[in-house]
From TrEMBL:
PROSITE patterns: D_2_HYDROXYACID_DH_2 (PS00670), D_2_HYDROXYACID_DH_3 (PS00671). This is Glycerate dehydrogenase/glyoxylate reductase. CDD domains: GDH. Signal peptide: none annotated. GO terms for molecular function: glyoxylate reductase (NADPH) activity; hydroxypyruvate reductase [NAD(P)H] activity; NAD binding. Residues 134-306 form the D-isomer specific 2-hydroxyacid dehydrogenase NAD-binding domain. Residues 1-25 are annotated as: Disordered. It comes from the Bacteria. The lineage of its organism: Bacteria, Thermotogati, Deinococcota, Deinococci, Thermales. Residues 30-337 form the D-isomer specific 2-hydroxyacid dehydrogenase catalytic domain. Belongs to the D-isomer specific 2-hydroxyacid dehydrogenase family.
Length: 338
């Protein structure tokens, strides 16, 4: 479980110079922290690299520390916290090729200081994540999960004009916080549902949607959807004050990172102020089974599956492998972060 509280990482102040590239040699070790769908890892094996894959569901820190020893390349998932201790254990580590677009689980400054390159997988998961954002929005607005439980639990005895009334998306204002690739893909889908789109980002973009300050957006939007990376600046962006500054009866959707939101304050806001929330990410993650969010009928929670389309996940593996090989071969990786 990822701890709550202040993030462990620091943002890099300047690009990494990179450790000296070493030609890929037979037997060099790459450690992959989970099994990955598809055949991308075969490419590493074909190059003579020794690919060690952790096959369990969890990877405790102590085991990560042991298994990373001797690795020149590491492919971690969002659940692996890659801090200075891990980097120091892997003395010859040259590249951390994240199997994710988000890199908040990596201490980027520590990587930069050690000359370790960090890469990620932007682009390939945009559409899948936007799809799940709309799935959560529809589920919350039209009370799909409540309705399914109602039917399955034998409570459906008659049609009634007032049964499980939800919100019509047509005509609602969607406020996107963060307007990168995923935010823009969500906007396109929202337009098809007849929604009006407004957004907030660090700087306005040449887009056909009104740019608002975060405070204006929270006041105007019927639905707020988060699509911004987790950084020291965005940690708990939606704190108590901002959650309660949202319109009464609004919906919050989060498919970005759990720590963008103050979870305790969200629980309170869902007990009367907000219509509901759709969360693919939480803080902490995963949520303990007895967490109050699970007892709120207006909270729909999915287990961080935004990018979990088979093709998307296979492509993420291909991108991570290409980034990793590029660094080991002394080429500039296609998707560098550090
Ligand atoms: C990411 O890529 O950052 C997602 O959270 C997991 O795919």
């Amino acid at each position: 479980m990822r701890p709550t509280g202040a993030p462990p990482w620091r943002w890099p102040s300047s690009p990494s110079p990179g450790r000296n590239p070493t030609p890929v040699k037979r037997g060099m070790k790459v450690f992959v922290t989970r099994t990955l769908p598809g055949k991308a890892l075969d490419r590493l094996r074909e190059r003579g690299l020794e690919v060690e894959v952790h096959r369990g569901l969890f990877l405790p820190k102590a085991e990560l520390l042991k298994r990373v020893e001797g690795a020149v390349g590491l492919i971690p998932t969002v659940e692996d916290r890659i801090d200075a201790e891990v980097m120091d254990r892997a003395k010859g580590l040259k590249v951390i090729a994240c199997y994710s677009v988000g890199v908040d689980h990596v201490d980027l400054e520590a990587a930069r200081e050690r000359g370790i390159r960090v890469t990620h997988t932007p682009g390939v998961l945009t559409e899948a994540t936007a799809d799940l954002t709309l799935a959560l929005l529809l589920a919350v607005a039209r009370r799909v999960v409540e309705g399914a439980a109602y039917a399955r639990d034998g409570l459906w005895r008659a049609w009634h004009p007032e049964l499980l009334l939800g919100l019509d998306l047509q005509g609602l204002t969607l406020g996107l916080v963060g307007m990168g690739r995923i935010g823009q893909a969500v906007a396109k889908r929202a337009l098809a549902f007849g929604m009006r789109v407004v957004y907030h980002a660090r700087t306005p973009k040449p887009l056909p949607y009104p740019f608002l300050s975060l405070e204006e957006l929270l006041k105007e939007a019927d639905v707020v959807s988060l699509h911004t990376p987790l950084t020291p600046e965005t940690h708990r962006l939606l704190n108590r004050e901002r959650l309660f500054a949202m319109k009464r009866g609004a919906i919050l959707i989060n498919t970005a990172r759990g720590a963008l939101v103050d979870t305790e304050a969200l629980v309170e806001a869902l007990r009367g102020h907000l219509f509901g929330a759709g969360l693919d990410v939480t803080d902490p993650e995963p949520l303990p089974q007895d967490h109050p969010l699970y007892r709120l009928p207006n909270a729909v929670i999915t287990p961080h599956i935004g990018s979990a389309g088979r093709t998307t996940r296979e492509r993420m593996a291909e991108v991570a492998v290409e980034n990793l090989l590029a660094v080991l071969e002394g080429r500039e990786p296609p998707n560098p972060v550090v």
